[in-house]
Amino acid sequence: MISNISISKAIGFAFFIGLILACGLLQVLAIKDRFVLFPLIVAALIVFSWILVLLVASKLYPKGDRSILCLSWLLCAVGLIFVYRLKPELFLLQALWVVTGGAAFLVAALVSAKINRFFRYKYLIAILGIVLLAVALVFGEEINGSRNWVIIGPVRFEPFEFARLLMVIFLAAYLDERRVLFAAPDWKLGFVRLPDKRILAPLVVLWGMAMLVLIVQKDLGAALLFFATAVLLMYIGTGRLIYVLGGALVFFGGSIVCYLLYWHVRVRVDIWLNPWLDPDGRAFQIVQSLFAFAAGGLWGTGIGFGHPSLIPEVHTDFIFAAIGEELGLLGALAVLLAYSLLITRAFRIAMLSRNNFLSLLSAGLACFLALQVFLIIGGVTKFFPLTGVTMPFVSYGGSSMVSTSIILGILFAISDGECNYVEI
Amino acid sequence: MLKYDLESNYRQRKNIYNVAIFLLLLFAAIAVYLCYVQIFNADFLNNNTHNRRSYFFADSIKRGAIIDRNGVVLAHSVKAADGKYYRIYDYGAAFANITGYYSKKYGKTGIEAQYDDQLSGANNSLLVFGPIARLWQTEGADVVLTIDARVQLNAYNALGRYNGAAVAINPQTGEILAFVSKPEFNPNYLDDSWQSLINDKNSPLIDRAAQGLYPPGSTIKAMMAAESLHYGVIDQEKTMDCAGQLKIGDYELIDDNHEVHGKINIKDALIDSCNIFFGQLAIDSGRGKTLSYFRDFKFGQSVPNVLNSVSAVIPDLHKLGDGDLAQTGIGQGGLLVTPLQMALVTAAIANDGVVELPYFVSSIRVNDKAVKTFYPQRYFSVADKDSMTAVRDMMEAVVKRGTGTSVRIPGVRVGGKTGTAQNPHGESHSWFVGFAPVDNPKVCVAVIAENAGYGAGIAASVARQIIIDTLGR
C-alpha cells in the first residue's frame, strides 16, 4: 500500500480535482444554456483553500497521511457539482461549508497535537457529549420527521453529529483503560462468559442512550450508527465477538420493540420490506430513488439530463440517487470506491499506531465513517431500511461537513505518529 | 507495562483488520446490489407505471411520425412554446383505430403502443454510448405503414353515418391497405373527451375492424363452399332441391322472401345465396367437418401481427342440435367473426388458399432512411387451389348476376359475396366481402355496416369504393 502522497503530488491532485469540479459546473451551466463566471471563481477559491490547508497541515505534521485529504476533496467536488445541479441557490453556502470544513480540519489536527490529553479528560468529554445530546433532545426541532436539529438564529446544526464524535473519543479512552478487565472473563450467564458487571454497566448505559435516541429523536440511523460504532469498538478493544453478537442481539430486540410500539419506526421498516404497497404515498421517496438508479443504468444520463428532482430532499440524504442517475453505475461505484479508499486509509492509520488509545480512537472514527456511508447508501438503494444520515462530504449540509472534517483532522494528526509517543 | 502494551497492540491490530475487512465486505455487498438495481432490475423499474420518467423523456425528444405507404403523414410531433413536444394526428379520427392514441394520462394504444420503442427513440442505438449520446440530439424513428391514406379516407367517408368497419388487404403480401372503424374518436382531444368516450354505449374506443364480433351472415357461404369442395362433401355438379324451406326437427330454415330455388348446384346456390342449400350442406358435412372448416381458417385464434385482435367465436357444435348446425352453415346462430377475419377468408380464396400474415408496418425510418424493413410472412394455407379457383369463379358470378351486382366496376373483374347478419337488437347488419381483379387479385375487402338493413347496399358501395381506389381507377 502507498505509504503517503508527496506534497507536490497532492497539490497536483488538488488541481486535477479542481478541473473535474470546473467541468461539472460548466456542464450544469451548459444545460441551462447560460454562462456565469461566479461558480468557477468559487471553485478556484476552493482549490486554493485546499492547497492552503494541505500546506499548513503538512507543516504541522510532515508525515501525516495526505491521501485522506485528497479523497475528501474528490468527494467534496462531487458534492459541490450535484448541489449546484440540484439546488443552485445552496451552492455558495455549500462552498462555504467546504472551506469551513478545511478550517475545522486544521483546528482538529492542531488540537490533536496533545491528543493524549483527551485520555485524561475522558469523563469530561463524555459529559459534554451527553449535554450535547440533551440539547438536541430538549431544544431539537423536527425536520423531516427527525428531532435532531438545533436552530440558533440562521444557523441550524445537528448536535448529534458532534456528540457521536465525543462518545467515540470517550469510549476509546475508557476501553483502553479497562482493557484487562474487559478481556478477563469472570462470570457466567449460561454458556456465555461475561466480564464484571461493573464494567458491563457502561455498555448497557450506551445501549440505553441509543434506544433513547431512537425513541425520542425518531432517528433509527443515528441510534444505529451510535450503537454499532460502540459495539465494533468494544470488539476491537477486547477481541471478543460476544460484544458484536450480543450487541446485535440487544439492538435487534430493542428495534423490534420499537417497531411494535412506534408508528414511525414501523413505517420505515414496512416501506423497506415492500415499497410497492404504497409507491405513491409513504414509499414515494425510496421508490423514486430506485427509479433514479434504474434510469441511470451503466453510463448514467449525463449531468443535467436526468430527473433526480423527482425525489424529495434529493440534495441532502438522497444525493447518491442523483449521482446514480446522472453518472450511472460507473459514477456511483466510483464514489463508493472513493469512500472505500478513505476508510481503508483510516483503518491503516489505526493499525500503524503503536499507541493503544490512539489506535482504538482512529479505528473508532474509521468505523463511524464506514457505518455512516453504509447506512445512507444502503438506505437510498433499499439495501437496508432508510435512516436519516447524511453522506459525508457529498450531501448538502454544514454539520456533517464540519464533523467529518474534524474526524479527518484527528486521523491526520494520529497518522503523523508524533503524538503516538507522548507520555501520558 | 510496555511489554503488555505491545502485545495488546498486536492483538488489537488483528481485531482492527477483521473489522476493516467486515466493513469493506459490506461495501462490496452494496456494490453488487447497485449493479442489480441499475442493470438487472432496471427494466422492471424503468417500465413501472409509477415511474414518470418516460414522459419526461418523451417531452424532451421529438417523437417519430406515423406515415402512410405514400408518405402522407398521419401523426407527428411539434415543439410548442413551452419547449415540450405535442402529438398531432393530421387526419383527426380517420386513422385513430390504427395509430391509436398517445396520452400521458391514459397511456398508449395501437401503433403508438406497439412501436413505442422506435417512435420514442428509447431504443436508439446511440443510447448505448450513455451521456456521450447527448452530443447528438436524437429523435424518434418514423414508422411507415402499409396503409394507403387515400383508400382509408374514401372508405371512411363512404361508410358515412353508419357504424361498422372496412378492411382491405393485399392478398399476395398481407399488407393492410385500409382499416376503418366507426364510430371513431379523435385522438387529438383524447384527454378532454375521455369521460364521454368511455361512457359512450357505442364504444368508440373499440377497434371494430379487429375487435368487433358480428355474425358473418351469408358471407360465410363462400368459405363453406371452398371447404366442402376441398373435403369432398360436395362437387360442383351435384344439385340439391330447394323448396324454400328446410325442416330440421322442430326448427324450420327458410330462405329470404320464401324464395324457392328448385334444383340448384353449389354455384347457383352461392349466386342466389340460398339458405336451404348451405344449411343442408352444413348438415351433410357433419359437426366434425364443419368445425374443421373454421379451424382451418384459424377462426379460433387472434391474428398474431395485429395488436388486440380478437378471435372468432365458434359455437360448440357438438352440444348443439341440427338446427343450430344448419344455422352455422349460413353464418347465423352462435358464430361470430371480426371484419379482419372475413378479410382473411377472402384473401385465402383470392390467393389459392395461401394466406399471408396481415401487417401494418412496412418499415422503420430514421432521417428518411429505412433502418428496418418488414416483409410478407406466410400465415397459413387452407383448402386447395382447385377449390379456391372454383369459388373465385362463383364469386365473380355473384357480382356479375347475383346479389352483388351493385359492386360491378366496368373493366374490372370483381368477385364478392353479400351478407345480411340478423341482429336481435335492431336492423340487420349489411356485409360485403370481395376481391379484384379475379385473375390476379390485388385487393380483398371485408366491409360491415351496422344496422344498414337487408341487401349489400352500403357495405357493397364502400367495398366498391375501396376496390376502385386501390386499383387506381
Radius of gyration of chain B: 30 Å
Poorly predicted sequence stretches spanning 5 or more consecutive residues of chain A: none
Shape by Cα distribution of chain A: globular
State the order of secondary-structure elements of chain A, H for helix, E for strand: HHHHHHEEEHHEEHHHHHHHHH
> Number of helix segments of chain B?
16
Distance between the termini of chain B: 112 Å
Helix content of chain B: 25-40%
Q: Can you tell me the overall shape of chain B?
A: elongated
Q: What's the total number of strands of chain B?
A: 19
Biggest sheet architecture of chain B: 6 strands, mixed
Q: Looking at the chains present, what oligomeric state does this protein adopt?
A: heterodimer
Number of strands of chain A: 5
C-alpha Rg of chain A, in Å? 22 Å
What structural class do you assign from the helix and strand content of chain B?
alpha+beta
Helical percentage of chain A: over 70%
Strand content of chain B: 15-25%
Which pair has the most extensive contact?
Answer: A-B, 54 and 43 residues
Low-confidence stretches of chain B: none
How much strand content do the residues of chain A show?
Answer: under 5%
Major sheet characteristics of chain A: 3 strands, antiparallel
Structure description:
The complex is a heterodimer of chains A (424) and B (473). By secondary structure, chain A is mostly helical. Chain A is 70% helix and 4% strand. Chain A has 17 helices and five strands. In chain A, the strands form two sheets. Chain A has a three-stranded antiparallel beta sheet, covered by helices on one side. In chain A, strands 4-5 form a two-stranded antiparallel ribbon. The mean pLDDT of chain A is 85. In chain B, strand 18 and strand 19 (443-449) form a beta hairpin. In chain B, the strands form six sheets. Chain B has a six-stranded mixed beta sheet, covered by helices on one side. A five-stranded antiparallel beta sheet of chain B has the order 8-7-19-18-17, with helices on both faces. Chain B has helices at residues 2-40, 42-46, 53-60, 96-99, 110-114, 116-120, 149-158, 190-199, 208-211, 220-230, 266-271, 275-296, 322-329, 339-350, 385-401, 457-470; strands at residues 66-67, 73-79, 85-89, 102-103, 107-108, 142-145, 164-169, 176-182, 239-242, 245-248, 251-254, 262-265, 354-356, 361-366, 369-373, 378-381, 415-421, 429-436, 443-449. In chain B, helix 10 (220-230) crosses helix 14 (339-350). Helix content of chain B is 38%, strand content 19%. The radius of gyration of chain B is 30 Å and the shape is elongated. The N and C termini of chain B lie far apart (112 Å). Chain B is α+β, with helices and mostly antiparallel strands and 473 residues long. Chains A and B meet through helix 10, helix 13, helix 15 and helix 16 of A and helix 1 and helix 2 of B.
